[in-house]
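Inputs:
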Amino acid sequence: MSYAPVDPPPRLLMGPGPITADPRVLRAMSSQLVGQYDPWMTATMNETMALYRDVFRTANEQTFVVDGTSRAGIEAALVSLLEPGDRVLVPVMGRFGHLLVEIAERCRAEVHTVEVPWGEVVPAEGVEEAVVRVRPTLVATVQGDTSTTMNQPLADLGEVCRRHDVLLYVDATASLGGNALEADTWGLDVVTAGLQKCLGGPSGSAPITLSPRAVAVVEGRKHVEAGIRAADDTDAAGERIASNYLDLAQVMDYWGPRRLNHHTEATTMLYGARECARLLVEEGLDAAVERHRLHGAAMLAGVRGLGLRVFGDVAHKMHNVVAVEIPEGIDGDGARQAMLDDFGIEIGTSFGPLHGKVWRIGTMGYNARKDAVLVTLAALEQVLRAGGAPVTAGGGVGAAREVYADATTSGTDA
Amino acid sequence: MSYAPVDPPPRLLMGPGPITADPRVLRAMSSQLVGQYDPWMTATMNETMALYRDVFRTANEQTFVVDGTSRAGIEAALVSLLEPGDRVLVPVMGRFGHLLVEIAERCRAEVHTVEVPWGEVVPAEGVEEAVVRVRPTLVATVQGDTSTTMNQPLADLGEVCRRHDVLLYVDATASLGGNALEADTWGLDVVTAGLQKCLGGPSGSAPITLSPRAVAVVEGRKHVEAGIRAADDTDAAGERIASNYLDLAQVMDYWGPRRLNHHTEATTMLYGARECARLLVEEGLDAAVERHRLHGAAMLAGVRGLGLRVFGDVAHKMHNVVAVEIPEGIDGDGARQAMLDDFGIEIGTSFGPLHGKVWRIGTMGYNARKDAVLVTLAALEQVLRAGGAPVTAGGGVGAAREVYADATTSGTDA
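Outputs:
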């Protein structure tokens, strides 16, 4: 059997991510490789660290990328922070909270949760009450959970964790770059992300930052590989981290001045991660968050203008995704298929209790753009009408246009 | 601080890998993304599975890529196969054998080794004797260990493992595509690789294949994630795999007909992995191995023609890398620096007992080419002469040319 080179169909990806990559990121990723310890390569790694410090709003020295998808970043954080038997508290507001539970259990931690119904965020008082009761070493939370579109407020959680001397880990995969995140100001100890959401790149690289107190925990568990151990290397007392690939103590020695050989850096993904951060820093983080706010507001107004209902506590909705209730009588999967087949636009399905009940529509990264919002609303109107749903002609695009007009009047750049 | 887009210096990467990527692979990787469950995407995943069956020479249904570097593939195999307390036997002939030991220990396996001095391969009889003594559930070995350049013969090991009903795992990261590997004929149960050696791509994707009996072990440990569990999902009896990200039972459900959500596939790396395999299959695996044999032989003759000595048991040398003893009086790191600074050519340093004693020079993937071999030898001659080493003028290029001339006479395409 013979195959041709890849030639993907044109798609506008307006789901909960991955989304269409910024062409500038793909261009950066087509650059040729250099050697692993080439001075240019190590300088590029250092630049990438500096850029992600800006993206995470942190002064943390230990800010780099893990070679894997955003899930690899989550697991690297948890497996490196949690010793077997450690107590961890996970506020759960959707699917990705369950994922943190699952990964923490596999680290053999004692996992406790504070759960709220899908569509709500977890109140800080509930977390504090559980912290006092459970006495965890770590609170692990998702910031933006795309399964419900909720954006968990973090400033209060950071304050609670500092006050009770608990580490705070945040999975910001789906939120970073499109919603405010202030690692240092809010007291977040470890934050991980991915490129495939608001950062406008492909999945496969997981930016991470660790505060000095998180670094101290990880370093306390460091064991240098036998094959590259120096005579004066001594192992720490803690139990050896259960993963080698995701052992952040080793990964930090690879990114740090020792440049100890570990994995072979995924250079093409590094180029992509660097370009994602570079574009975001060039735009300005505040401007990028405002851009996501604006286009998210336009999409929200637009789907409501089509007569659709929105799921969840909209006051706490992430800027970059909205969960839209599938109207009575419409075949949700059939409508998504029609969007894809007839208009080349992908919108998302959903998980668990929301499966078959809502579509998830994203406005993020490269696709947090006016034309992407308007063309999606225009196509959705046609698909709903063809399916027999009562829709106001032009209601979606019209409502979105009003949001843009207001923004222009008030001086926000649309 | 403001940064420009990445703009790498031109390099010819003639070390032990990563090496210069085939431009066709980089072009494939610059293709735009599609959605995770787009029919085109799942078809592309299926094509990638089919292509890697050809590359691994296997009929194994479970043949796919792990989203991480080659080391992620190794860890995925070991953490998914080994339950805590399982006995594993690791033949160690260099650094990457020690890495298998390290990873297996982190899986809490009981690890036994058969070691040989660096520069030798492990005799099958020694492995069989240890299998009888240790009674492991798994033998885990490296095929090509770049730290010593040795190519471990595997056909006999496969036979031993089948006879004693032991699973055989092979790390073929550095060897696959440039040295014969016959997964099914040789009885290899699990084989993993990376793109950055003979496959001519960047690091960041780890092709893997699992035999039905290996799949049975992994499936016996399957636990479906709580967040996406269906009513009729029942968990297996075995201890839950310690990693979620590298849990092959879950990864197989993502690549298989259930398409259960797990990580978000690293689409750009998938495009790269597919193109690497496509080019190799188009060339023909036998032709690719022969190409690596030829250019490896030319490089070997060339360094000897320069009066240099070669480390290790050359009869068991991998085709794609040679370890060259640094001559008396030459500063090894200074010479590598001069190769890079003055000629844009990277050759490799070395690890452990060989550190400071040998350079490692590769001829692999896109750089298993006559011009790459000859220009490296020409530059090395100049650097050695400038360093005061006694070299025969033209001796390296001349000796390599003779290998090419012989190959042309005997009908092998140079």
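Remarks. The first helix of chain B runs from residue 23 to 29. Chain B touches chain A through 93 residues (CB under 8 Å).
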